[in-house]
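Side project, low priority. Logging it here so it doesn't get lost.
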Amino acid sequence: MTHAELMADSAARYNTKREIALARADLERQIAFLDSIHTGCGSCQHYGGRGIGCKLAGGQEPPDDVLPVGCDSWLWDQIPF
């Protein structure tokens, strides 16, 4: 969707200040949720934990500086524990 299409679609949905306020509140909740997701190795489906290592790396343990931030192949199973 182009920027112009997005703006036209959005303009059709938000006719009142209340609609805009509700949309903003919903977006803020979504952002808070996304910010709460830890994307380090510990929450990645590919990581089996210390001693098991990363399945994508053939069982190798990620470097200490990668563990807290994860890598580009990070995959979340959406289970919060």
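Brief comment: The chain has a mean pLDDT of 89.
Revisit when time allows.
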